[in-house]
């Protein structure tokens, strides 16, 4: 079992020291491929460079290695560390995410069924207090308590792509498609 509160307490200061915001800490893969996934972003761009990923990965690795040497490893056994940007169809994990991405399509899964449903898809209206509002394709408004949400993520749409500006497109026009000469 992984203590996510302990992991967040270890990882968040490392991200913050680099000026990054922690988006998600997750552990998946089971016994066959256990992976500690850390997603972070620069608050001003909502993105992460490859150098940011490498630097944060080193910081986290150094911190976890030191804890292991001290006999205080928060994770039992071997695992793989994966540090990345949340990506364009990002998970929504913090209350601010639901406000920041209002107007975009999202998929939300609840921890338990509510009114006979556990999964909701539609346009994110935002968050008011601790209630997330989503309007589905039938124009039905769903008010979901933030604490009841298990997972939520944006849906990749043309509107989302247009709203997400890359850090740099330098060199993109020089790329060749595979197989071209």
From TrEMBL:
Any single GO CC term annotated in Swiss-Prot or TrEMBL for this entry: cytosol
Subcellular localization(s) per the UniProt record: Cytoplasm
Domain Ribosome maturation factor RimP N-terminal: 10-89
Domain Ribosome maturation factor RimP C-terminal: 92-157
GO biological process: ribosomal small subunit assembly; translation
Keywords assigned: Cytoplasm, Ribosome biogenesis
Cytoplasm is among the record's keywords: yes
Signal sequence interval, chain numbering: none
Gene3D superfamilies: Ribosome maturation factor RimP, C-terminal domain (2.30.30.180), RimP-like superfamily, N-terminal (3.30.300.70)
Xref: Pfam families: DUF150_C, RimP_N
Classification via InterPro entries: Ribosome_maturation_RimP, RimP_C, RimP_C_sf, RimP_N, RimP_N_sf
Statement: the UniProt record of this protein carries the keyword Cytoplasm: yes
Family: Belongs to the RimP family.
Role description: Required for maturation of 30S ribosomal subunits.
PANTHER family: RIBOSOME MATURATION FACTOR RIMP
Name by which UniProt lists this protein: Ribosome maturation factor RimP
Originating species: Sphingopyxis granuli
Name of the encoding gene: rimP
């Amino acid at each position: 079992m992984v203590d996510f509160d302990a992991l967040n307490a270890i990882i968040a200061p490392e991200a913050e020291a680099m000026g990054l915001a922690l988006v998600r800490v997750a552990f998946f893969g089971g016994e066959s491929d256990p992976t500690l996934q850390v997603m972070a972003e620069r608050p001003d761009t909502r993105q992460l460079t490859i150098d940011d990923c490498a630097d944060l990965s080193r910081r986290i690795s150094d911190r976890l290695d030191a804890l292991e040497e001290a006999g205080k490893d928060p994770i039992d056994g071997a695992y793989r560390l994966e540090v990345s940007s949340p990506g364009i169809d990002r998970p929504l994990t913090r209350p601010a995410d639901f406000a920041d991405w209002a107007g975009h399509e999202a998929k939300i899964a609840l921890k338990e069924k509510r009114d006979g449903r556990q999964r909701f898809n539609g346009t994110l209206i935002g968050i008011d207090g601790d209630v997330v509002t989503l309007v589905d394709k039938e124009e039905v408004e769903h008010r979901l308590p933030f604490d009841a949400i298990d997972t939520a993520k944006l849906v990749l749409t043309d509107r989302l792509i247009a709203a997400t500006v890359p850090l740099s497109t330098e060199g993109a026009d020089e790329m060749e498609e595979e197989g071209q000469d």
